[in-house]
Write a structure and sequence with these properties.
Length: about 425
């Protein structure tokens, strides 16, 4: 099979060049099922070992055992991109996956969100894991896990911010200074101790906590690096899968394949790209939305949008009522119908697209929000007398109290002092003991 896959890869690469894709080279690796599900659980090779990754691994495996999904490949943003293929795939499945990965690789290299994103994260993360192992040997697993448990509770609260440089304000001249001389000179202005506000909560704790040892800071900042490595993928999941599906279909249609392989590929894609009952399938929606964009707006305009937008912004800026109707995007509501003599019967009604501009905007916003995994936006805004103040930026969306307080206790442990969370009309306070 290896020789056949190498020959197919060469054909796909030539076809990708004709599409003007920036997709090759790709680092191909064949792995077993355990390895590919392990990678799916952590998101990238080389991450530090932690019990939450084992939990996510068994979630992925249990989904497979229930027939809820199967992983055929996984591709990682690096240079070159690293594509992991499942050993047990059939030859047609491997060919389909290879064509699919060319779409992913092209998006990694050309999308604006990855333009300034480092491509050496796998190397960085592997070095961090080696340091974690050294800390386990020196300080013990319990001490290391204590830090990691709290840092991983905040791995979404990261931002790749450029440090602000404090500038001394210009001197203000007083024309009457000689009439009213000061008995003592004004004290010199000092830069603030902390560069606030900041969205990078975990980075702030790793750099500024007064209680963490150097090795503990390293662990906290290592978790921050993992969060930064995976952050862009959360914003372009639908575009990624939709573009990879579009490229895969174009390449496989253009290249000469035996009939039985085409049928097997069609069967596989019918399962992966099908409409789902309980959620919006990013493969199906991304593929069909991109096709609609190209058909309606033309290749150049559609590609410019695909390579610069996120999932949410693509929906907000480009999804029209006509597109929603063409893609059969409907909302379903339960309505009560009296059906004598059995009594009332609840039936599902398929509602057409909203008829007013305001209703349409609300509908489109709900769809855009559905495509993004919700992460509370929290900023570090002040430090006063040892108390760290966090501000929740969207208080109109209430926080879950149990989860919020548990996360706030992790912040207090890493900070080593009281922590306040201001969220609109209410304030949560946790001291260093977690009370």
């Amino acid at each position: 099979m290896i020789a056949a896959l190498e020959a197919w890869d060469a054909q796909v690469a030539d076809a990708a060049d004709r599409m003007a894709l920036d997709a090759r080279p790709i680092d191909w690796r064949l792995v077993d099922a355990d390895r590919i599900y392990e990678l799916a659980a952590v998101g990238m090779p080389g991450v530090m070992r932690h019990w939450t990754h084992g939990r996510d691994y068994w979630i992925e495996r249990s989904r497979l055992s229930r027939g809820r999904g199967r992983l055929y490949e996984m591709i990682v943003h690096a240079e070159p991109p690293i594509a992991y293929l499942l050993e047990g795939n059939t030859l047609p499945a491997q060919k389909l996956v290879i064509a699919h990965c060319y779409g992913h690789a092209d998006l990694f290299r050309r999308h604006a969100i990855f333009r300034d994103h480092p491509t050496d994260y796998p190397v960085r993360l592997a070095a961090q894991e080696r340091r974690r192992q050294a800390y386990v040997a020196e300080y013990g697993p319990d001490a290391v896990d204590w830090v990691l448990d709290r840092a991983y509770a905040l791995d979404d609260q990261v931002a790749d911010e450029v440090p602000r440089v404090w500038q001394k304000p210009p001197e203000r001249t007083d024309p009457y200074a000689d009439l009213f001389p000061r008995s003592q000179p004004k004290p010199p202005l000092r830069p603030p101790k902390y560069a606030l506000p900041t969205r990078d909560v975990l980075g702030f704790l790793g750099r500024e906590s007064p209680v963490l040892a150097d090795w503990e800071r390293d662990l906290v900042l290592s978790v921050r690096q993992e969060g930064l490595a995976l952050a862009p993928n959360r914003h372009v999941k639908m575009i990624h899968e939709g573009w990879a599906a579009y490229v895969q279909q174009r390449l496989c249609t253009e290249l000469d394949l035996p009939d039985w392989e085409q049928l097997e590929m069609a069967r596989l894609w019918a399962g992966v790209g099908a409409v789902q009952k309980d959620h919006l399938n990013p493969y199906w929606f991304g593929w069909n939305f991109i096709r609609w964009l190209i058909d309606v707006h033309g290749w150049d305009t559609a590609i410019a949008a695909i390579l610069t937008e996120t999932d949410a912004s693509l929906v907000r800026n480009w999804l029209t009522p006509e597109a929603a109707q063409a893609l059969a995007l409907y909302q379903y509501t339960w309505e009560e119908e009296p059906v004598p003599p059995q009594g009332p019967l609840w039936v599902a009604r398929r509602a057409a697209r909203p008829t007013t501009d305001a209703a349409w905007v609300r509908w489109r916003e709900s769809l855009a929000a559905h495509l993004v995994r919700p992460v509370p936006e929290v900023w570090v805004t002040a430090v006063s007398h040892g108390t760290l103040t966090l501000t929740y930026q969207t208080p109109q969306v209430p926080l879950d109290e149990a989860w919020g307080l548990a996360t706030l206790r992790s912040v207090a442990d890493l900070w080593g002092g009281p922590v306040r969370l201001v969220a609109g009309d209410y304030t949560w306070v946790v001291d260093a003991k977690g009370d």
